[in-house]
C-alpha cells in the first residue's frame, strides 16, 4: 500500500544543532556498521550480540548526542546521570488527576520523595575499561560502541565464560539491561536474542545504514540464575507471558472524613467497557515514581515501565479505576501506562521500553477488545479537559518526542494510506527521524531557548500554506487569543502522528484540515490519505457545542446521585466544517465518591456522543447535533 516517505536525512541538521561541535556521524573512513564490527573484534564480543543489544537500547541511533529518558547516551545507551540532569516533577501543574467534580479536587502537592533520583551510571565503567573519557563516550558514536562492547566483555568475564558462540552470552546480555530482578533481565535478553534470530536492517537517525543478519541461535537462558538478581514477584500482575511483570500494588486506603485513595475499585469490563489506553511519561525516574504510586493519598495508574530494560510493574488492576488522566470519564473507561521519561527535556525513549509497552498494549487491547488506532490509544496530551476551567491545566505528556509511528509499527497496526486525496481525510505521518521541528523550552518551559535538534512526531499547523505563516489559536490553552508558539509544551497549533483530520482544502503541496474551528495548513507529504467518517453540524445550526466528557442527561440520574452538569468547553464547532469521527459512545458516569463500594453506580443515559479529533485533543459532540457521513461524500 502507498506510504508517506521522506527521503532526506538529518545529518546536516544534527551537526548544526550540536553545541559541542562534534559531528553526528562517524568519520567517512568508518561507518556505523564498521564501528560495530571493529568493537566486537577488539573486545571479543560476537558481533550479532553487540548489534542486538544496541538495537534494543537505541535502534543504533545516535540521537544527536542527547540522553535518553533514563540518562543513556549513544547507540549503546551508556548512562551518565550527572551530564543528563533530572527533570520536572510528576506533580507539577494544576491538573486534578481524578478529574471528577463530584469530589474534592486533588491538587498537586510537594513530595518528600525526590522523583528526579537517578538510575546507576555505566559510563564510568566504560571509561575505565576503554581508557576513553566520559565526555567522548557521550558524543562519539564509535567510541560509545567500544564502551558498550567493553562492558559486555567484562560481564562475560565475571561469569567465567569463554566462548565465541552468541548462545553463551545470554547472561552478559541480561546483566547489560541493568535489571535488578530475574524477570526483567530475562525479558530484555529474550528480546535481544529474538532480534538476532529475526535479523533487522535500517537507516539510523544520522543516515547510517546498519544490518543485523538473521542468525539462528538458542541461548543458554539458565545463565540468568548466576547474576545474583532477586526473583521477580509477579504476584497478581496482569501481563502477557515473557514480560517479567511484577506486582507492586497501589494502596486503597481510607483516612477519615470520608476521604480515601489512591484509586477507585470497579468491576470493568462487566460494569463499564474499557475504551482507551492512555500513554503517559513519568516526569521522573523509575524507582522514585514507584514511591509516588504507593502514596495512599495521591495519584495512581495501572502500569509503570522502566526505560533501560522495559521492565513493567503493575499497581492497579484493570477492573479498577486509576486516578491518572485528569478526566473522570476517560479514567473510568481507560487503562493508564506510565513510561519512565521526561516530555520536555528533548530526550528519547529506548527501544526496550517501546517493545515492552507495545507487547503489553497488544495484550490489553486483545483482552478488552480495544481497537489499535489513535482514537483509542491516546497520549495524555490527547485527553480533553472536563470543563473550560480545567483545559489549560491538563498535562501534555508524552510529548512530541514519543515516536507514535514506530510504536504503532510495534503494535502491528502501522499507519498507511487507506484512501486518496479525494477521500476526505488525512492521517498525520511525518518521518520521525527527519522531522526536526525547532521546538524551544526543553531546558525550562517558556525559556525560548532552542531544544536539542532531534526527530519528532508533530507537525505545526499554519493559518496559510507557507512556513512563515502564523500558527492557529487555542483559546483554551492561550485565553488571551494569541497564536501558538514553538514552546515544546504548547500544542495550540500542533497535530501528532497517527491523528486523522478532515480535509478542508488542498493547495499545491499543502493540505488544510479543520482544527479547533479553524483551517490549519501543513505539508501534504507529512501525512497519508485516509478514508472514514466525518461529522458536521446539522443543517440549520450555526455552530454546535463540544464537550470534554460524555456524561448522561440529568434525567438519567437516580435518586441520591447528583446529576453531573454537562458543561460545553470554551470552543464551538461552526457550520460548514467537518471533523474526523471516532467511536460513537453511549453516555456514562461512574458514581464512586466513597471508600465503601456498595453505593458505587454506573449511570447510563439516552444521550449518545461522537468522539471527534477536534484539535490536538479529542472532544465529544452530541450525536443529535451532528450528521455523520462517509468522508468521501
Give a written overview of the molecule:
With 633 residues, the chain is of the alpha+beta class. Among the domains are: 11-80 and 121-226, Lysozyme (Orthogonal Bundle), CATH 1.10.530; 537-630, no CATH class. Helix content is 20%, strand content 21%. A hairpin with a 5-residue loop joins strand 3 (200-203) and strand 4. Helix 3 (47-58) crosses helix 9 (182-198). 54% of the residues are buried.
Q: What's a quick, concise take on this entry?
A:
With 633 residues, the chain is an alpha+beta fold.
Please provide the count of β strands.
28
* Overall pLDDT confidence: 91
Q: What class, by secondary structure content?
A: alpha+beta
Total helical segments: 13
The N- and C-terminal alpha carbons lie at a distance of 23 Å
Could you list the spans in which at least 5 consecutive residues all have pLDDT below 50?
A: 1-28, 87-91, 112-117
> What strand line-up does the widest sheet have?
5-11-10-13-9-14
Provide the helix percentage: 10-25%
Which overall shape is indicated by the principal axes computed on the Cα atoms? Answer: globular
The major sheet is characterized as:
6 strands, mixed
Which features characterize this protein?
disordered N terminus; Lysozyme; alpha+beta; 633 residues; 13 helices
Please give the structural blueprint.
Blueprint: H1 11-17, H2 32-43, H3 47-58, E1 72-73, E2 78-79, H4 81-84, H5 123-130, H6 134-139, H7 141-158, H8 170-176, H9 182-198, E3 200-203, E4 209-212, E5 246-247, E6 253-254, E7 260-261, E8 263-264, E9 276-281, H10 286-293, E10 303-305, E11 312-314, E12 321-322, H11 328-331, E13 334-339, H12 351-368, E14 377-379, H13 404-410, E15 425-428, E16 458-460, E17 494-496, E18 500-507, E19 510-515, E20 518-523, E21 527-530, E22 533-537, E23 543-547, E24 568-574, E25 579-591, E26 601-613, E27 618-622, E28 626-630
Parallel strand pairs: 5-11, 9-13, 9-14, 10-13
Antiparallel strand pairs: 1-2, 3-4, 6-7, 8-12, 10-11, 15-18, 15-21, 16-17, 18-19, 19-20, 22-25, 22-28, 23-24, 25-26, 26-27
Amino acid at each position: 500500500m502507498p506510504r508517506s516517505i521522506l527521503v532526506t536525512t538529518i545529518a546536516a541538521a544534527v551537526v548544526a544543532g550540536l553545541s559541542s561541535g562534534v559531528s553526528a556521524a562517524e568519520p567517512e573512513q568508518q561507518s556505523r556498521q564498521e564501528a560495530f564490527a571493529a568493537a566486537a573484534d577488539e573486545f571479543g564480543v560476537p558481533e550479532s550480540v553487540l548489534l542486538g543489544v544496541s538495537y534494543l537500547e537505541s535502534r543504533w541511533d545516535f540521537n544527536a548526542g542527547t540522553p535518553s529518558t533514563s540518562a543513556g547516551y549513544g547507540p549503546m545507551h551508556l548512562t551518565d546521570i550527572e551530564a543528563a540532569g533530572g527533570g520536572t516533577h510528576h506533580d507539577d501543574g494544576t491538573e486534578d488527576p481524578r478529574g471528577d467534580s463530584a469530589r474534592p479536587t486533588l491538587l498537586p502537592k510537594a513530595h518528600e520523595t525526590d522523583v528526579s533520583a537517578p538510575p546507576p551510571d555505566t559510563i564510568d565503567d566504560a571509561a575505565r575499561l576503554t581508557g576513553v573519557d566520559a565526555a567522548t563516550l557521550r558524543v562519539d558514536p564509535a567510541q560509545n560502541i567500544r564502551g558498550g562492547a567493553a562492558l559486555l566483555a567484562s560481564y562475560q568475564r565475571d561469569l567465567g565464560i569463554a566462548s565465541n558462540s552468541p548462545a553463551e552470552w545470554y547472561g552478559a546480555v541480561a546483566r547489560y539491561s541493568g535489571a535488578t530482578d530475574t524477570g526483567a533481565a530475562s525479558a530484555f535478553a529474550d528480546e535481544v536474542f529474538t532480534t538476532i534470530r529475526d535479523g533487522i536492517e535500517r537507516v539510523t537517525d544520522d543516515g547510517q545504514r546498519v544490518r543485523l543478519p538473521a542468525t539462528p541461535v538458542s541461548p543458554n537462558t539458565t545463565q540468568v540464575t548466576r547474576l545474583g538478581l532477586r526473583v521477580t514477584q509477579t504476584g497478581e500482575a496482569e501481563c502477557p507471558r515473557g514480560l517479567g511483570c511484577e506486582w507492586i500494588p497501589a494502596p486503597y486506603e481510607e483516612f477519615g472524613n470520608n476521604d480515601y485513595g489512591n484509586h477507585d475499585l470497579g468491576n470493568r469490563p462487566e460494569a463499564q467497557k474499557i475504551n482507551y489506553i492512555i500513554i503517559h511519561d513519568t516526569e521522573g525516574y523509575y524507582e522514585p515514581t514507584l514511591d509516588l504510586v504507593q502514596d495512599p493519598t495521591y495519584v495512581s495508574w495501572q502500569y509503570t515501565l522502566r526505560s533501560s530494560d522495559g521492565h513493567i510493574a503493575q499497581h492497579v488492576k484493570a477492573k479498577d479505576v486509576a486516578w491518572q488522566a485528569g478526566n473522570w470519564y476517560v479514567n473510568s473507561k481507560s487503562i493508564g501506562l506510565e513510561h519512565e521519561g521526561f516530555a520536555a527535556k528533548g530526550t528519547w525513549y529506548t527501544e526496550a521500553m517501546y517493545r515492552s509497552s507495545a507487547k503489553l498494549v497488544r495484550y490489553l487491547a486483545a483482552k478488552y477488545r480495544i481497537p489499535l488506532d489513535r482514537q483509542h490509544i491516546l497520549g495524555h496530551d490527547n485527553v480533553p479537559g472536563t470543563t473550560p476551567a480545567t483545559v489549560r491545566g491538563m498535562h501534555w505528556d508524552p510529548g512530541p518526542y514519543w515516536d507514535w509511528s514506530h510504536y504503532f509499527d510495534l503494535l502491528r497496526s502501522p499507519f498507511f494510506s487507506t484512501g486518496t486525496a479525494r477521500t476526505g481525510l488525512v492521517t498525520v505521518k511525518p518521518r520521525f527521524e527527519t522531522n526536526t521541528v525547532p521546538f524551544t523550552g526543553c531546558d525550562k518551559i517558556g525559556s525560548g531557548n532552542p531544544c536539542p535538534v532531534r526527530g519528532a512526531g508533530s507537525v505545526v499547523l499554519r493559518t496559510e500554506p507557507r512556513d512563515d505563516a502564523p500558527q492557529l489559536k487555542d483559546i483554551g490553552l492561550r485565553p488571551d487569543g494569541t497564536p501558538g508558539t514553538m514552546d515544546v509544551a504548547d500544542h495550540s497549533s500542533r497535530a501528532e502522528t497517527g491523528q486523522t483530520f478532515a480535509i478542508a482544502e488542498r493547495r499545491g503541496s499543502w493540505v488544510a484540515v479543520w482544527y479547533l474551528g479553524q483551517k490549519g495548513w501543513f505539508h501534504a507529504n507529512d501525512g497519508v490519505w485516509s478514508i472514514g467518517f466525518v461529522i458536521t453540524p446539522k443543517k440549520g445550526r450555526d455552530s454546535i457545542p463540544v464537550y470534554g466528557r460524555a456524561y448522561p442527561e440529568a434525567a438519567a440520574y437516580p435518586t441520591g446521585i447528583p446529576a453531573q452538569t454537562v458543561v460545553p468547553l470554551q470552543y464551538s464547532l461552526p457550520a460548514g466544517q467537518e471533523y474526523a469521527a471516532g467511536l460513537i459512545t453511549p453516555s456514562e458516569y461512574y458514581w464512586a465518591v466513597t471508600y465503601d463500594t456498595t453505593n458505587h453506580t454506573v449511570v447510563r443515559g439516552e444521550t449518545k456522543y461522537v468522539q471527534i479529533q477536534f484539535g490536538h485533543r479529542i472532544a465529544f459532540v452530541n450525536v443529535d447535533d451532528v450528521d455523520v457521513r462517509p468522508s468521501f461524500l
